[in-house]
């Protein structure tokens, strides 16, 4: 696809020129990366976009290692699909446990009071909104049209959107998006004519993906037309027992390479089409760390979530501002030698009503009389009394005057 | 190619040693920048190169090589480079479309035949290598043949056994290094700690040990033992084995730290990074 350049040795050809070389097609909801000119889409979570270097590159896979109860990884998957609906991309959802239609019903509602976004489908609903918001700013009316300032890690907010997780997406918005599904119980295992290396569910999924990509014209080999679109693929809980795979059940699985073969085929499909995939894997069930390493290497981006729910950290006042920890396992270097790793490795996330924030983990200031941070005697008393306010010492009797 | 690495290895595009088997390995790190170095180095040295790019698309290698000063498209057109793009050939094998059942797979598709049944081994892949490097049409204008593989560990992930991969590397070494007097460079990646031997990462550890025994030069890439640093991406240990000329010193090791930039990588002695001094 890349036209050969005449040579890097010439002083006139600079890397700045390469980035503005416009072979990039303009598709709604995408933007070129400032680092290497890749086409990026938003994951739906602006903090995650910032961690991944501006967004998720088209043609790559994001692997999410699920937290113990699959609550936050599922949330990120829903953000990803909701972003696809809002940007009018096509969706492909595959799941073994829940019906993909149910996953779609639970998508969070987008927050549409940002006037910079134009969405003709929602025009009738927005007609009442500007009146209210204009009325809301009588004094600082010059700030009306500016995008909202984000204090957490974020890039420009016109690229990504924000969602309200307390409400589900309106059916009209949801039905405007084209949606393909793959539900494992609907594809019963039939005896394949050739001996296959993968369980039938994986090979059926790969075949279904290939067919959708080819039929809907996401192939890069297809003739370029003006209206290209992106296919967002969400694969839920690959590797779990419901997919017919015994990775999570045995220490030495019989076909331990079935998931990795599938991921290899998925990478081959994605590199040759305009699509992005988010895959969640229950890594806490896989005992073999080396297998997890080879799964990570076959995906491009990889993050792992560890939630505090149900662990003893949930009640630890040190972590009470956060819902869990986030680890960045891998960032790819696509079409370039070096990848941009995040500066800090200690990241924590918090799911608020209107935002999923990922921040550098910082401990609250220790205002108690004792010097050591882990003095549980007084702090646990304070935690029992304090509600959701910020100060650790709200119930500390030593500072009561 | 990276000029600092050339001076470390005492190699230059004008004079290359023949019959070398170079093993690039990494542990919990990413050594693929070294493969780009060797690819551009041997193309600049006017060697005939067979490159098995199993993990990334052709455009990725092409984009990186352009930054290092070599055009893979031109090399392919001139016949200097034979490129096997594993990803695109694998699709026709992994999920054959119904229209293709009777048609003939291309040379690349046959080379990736092991995806259909990993138990049959890598014989067809070896045949592909042998036929690309020993064909003599127009071979007079190019130098000695070179085989580059990126990477071998993905073959383990696809179900091929360690023994089959070691057989493949041995056959390639015999053909390319001894018979055709060329060079071989392979990348093998490893994920576990070296000390643990409870059978977790048995496959890639055994592969690494077997390949280390066969090779004449290893470059082992690791993260820094003291932790993550933004300015120093890791350390490289270069180890020369079986030097034929000096019988006294059989193996020689050197340790460097490196940092990968947009257009290359810089290597320096430990502790002399520009961020520190």
Automatic annotation (TrEMBL), chain A:
This is Elongator complex protein 4. Belongs to the ELP4 family. It is found in: Cytoplasm; Nucleus. GO terms for biological process: tRNA wobble uridine modification. It comes from the Eukaryota. Component of the elongator complex which is required for multiple tRNA modifications, including mcm5U (5-methoxycarbonylmethyl uridine), mcm5s2U (5-methoxycarbonylmethyl-2-thiouridine), and ncm5U (5-carbamoylmethyl uridine). The elongator complex catalyzes the formation of carboxymethyluridine in the wobble base at position 34 in tRNAs. InterPro entries: Elongator_complex_protein_4, P-loop_NTPase. Keywords: Cytoplasm, Nucleus, tRNA processing. Pathway: tRNA modification; 5-methoxycarbonylmethyl-2-thiouridine-tRNA biosynthesis. Coiled coil: none annotated. It holds the Pfam family PAXNEB. It comes from Labrus bergylta (ballan wrasse). The lineage of its organism: Eukaryota, Metazoa, Chordata, Craniata, Vertebrata. GO terms for cellular component: cytoplasm; elongator holoenzyme complex; transcription elongation factor complex.
């Amino acid at each position: 696809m890349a036209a050969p350049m005449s040579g890097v040795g010439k002083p006139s050809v600079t890397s700045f020129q390469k980035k503005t070389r416009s072979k990039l097609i303009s598709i709604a909801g995408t933007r070129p990366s400032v680092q290497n000119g890749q086409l990026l889409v938003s994951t739906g979570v602006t903090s995650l976009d910032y961690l991944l270097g501006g967004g998720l590159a088209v043609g790559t896979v994001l692997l999410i290692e699920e937290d113990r109860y699959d609550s936050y990884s599922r949330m990120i998957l829903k953000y990803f699909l909701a972003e696809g609906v809002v940007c009018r991309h096509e969706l492909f959802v595959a799941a073994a446990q829940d019906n993909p239609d149910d996953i779609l019903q639970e998508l969070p509602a987008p927050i549409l009071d940002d006037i910079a976004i134009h969405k003709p489908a929602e025009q009738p609903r927005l007609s009442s909104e500007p009146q209210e918001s204009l009325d809301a700013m009588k004094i600082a009316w010059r700030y009306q049209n500016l995008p909202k300032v984000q204090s957490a890690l974020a890039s420009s907010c016109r690229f990504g959107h924000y969602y309200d997780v307390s409400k589900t997406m309106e059916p009209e918005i949801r039905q405007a998006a084209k949606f393909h599904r793959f539900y494992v119980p609907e594809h019963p295992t039939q005896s394949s004519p050739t001996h296959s290396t993968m369980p039938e569910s994986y090979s059926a999924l790969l075949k279904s993906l290939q067919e959708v990509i080819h039929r809907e014209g996401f192939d890069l080999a297809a003739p370029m037309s003006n209206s290209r679109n992106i296919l967002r693929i969400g694969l839920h809980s690959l590797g779990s027992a419901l997919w017919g795979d015994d990775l999570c059940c045995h220490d030495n699985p019989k076909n331990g390479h079935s998931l990795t073969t599938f991921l290899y085929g998925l990478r081959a499909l994605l590199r040759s089409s305009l699509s992005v995939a988010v895959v969640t894997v229950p890594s806490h069930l896989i005992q073999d760390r080396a297998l997890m390493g080879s799964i990570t290497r076959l995906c491009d981006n990889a993050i792992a979530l560890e939630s505090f729910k149900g662990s003893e950290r949930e009640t630890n006042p040190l972590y009470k501002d956060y819902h869990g920890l986030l680890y960045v396992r891998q960032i790819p270097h696509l079409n370039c030698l070096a990848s941009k790793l995040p500066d800090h490795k200690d990241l924590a996330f918090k799911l608020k009503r209107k935002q999923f924030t990922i921040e550098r983990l910082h401990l609250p200031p220790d205002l108690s009389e004792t010097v050591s941070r882990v003095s549980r005697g007084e702090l646990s008393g304070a935690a029992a009394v304090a509600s959701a306010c910020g100060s650790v010492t709200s119930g500390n009797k030593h500072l009561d005057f | 190619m990276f000029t600092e690495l050339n001076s470390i290895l005492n190699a230059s595009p004008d004079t290359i040693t023949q019959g070398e088997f170079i093993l690039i390995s990494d542990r919990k790190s990413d050594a693929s920048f070294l493969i780009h170095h060797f690819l551009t180095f041997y193309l600049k040295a006017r060697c005939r190169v067979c490159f098995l790019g199993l993990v990334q698309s052709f455009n990725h290698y092409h984009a990186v090589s352009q930054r290092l000063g070599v055009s893979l498209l031109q090399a392919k057109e001139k016949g200097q480079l034979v490129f096997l793009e594993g990803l695109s050939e694998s699709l026709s094998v992994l999920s054959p479309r119904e229209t293709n059942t009777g048609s003939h797979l291309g040379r690349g598709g046959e080379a990736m035949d092991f995806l259909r049944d990993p138990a049959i081994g890598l014989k067809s892949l070896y045949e592909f290598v042998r036929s690309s490097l020993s064909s003599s049409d127009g071979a007079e204008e190019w130098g000695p043949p070179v085989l580059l593989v990126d990477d071998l560990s993905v073959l383990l992930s696809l179900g091929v056994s360690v023994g089959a991969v070691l057989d493949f590397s041995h056959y390639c070494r015999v053909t390319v290094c001894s018979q055709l007097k060329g060079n071989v460079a392979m990348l093998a990646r490893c994920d576990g700690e070296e000390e643990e031997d409870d059978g977790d990462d048995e496959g890639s550890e055994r592969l690494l040990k077997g390949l280390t025994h066969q090779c004449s030069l290893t470059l082992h890439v690791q993260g820094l033992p003291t932790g993550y640093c933004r300015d120093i991406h890791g350390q490289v240990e270069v180890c020369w084995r079986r030097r034929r000329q000096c019988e006294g010193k059989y193996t020689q090791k050197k340790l460097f730290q490196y940092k990968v930039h947009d257009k290359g990588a810089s290597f320096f002695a430990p502790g002399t990074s520009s961020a520190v001094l």
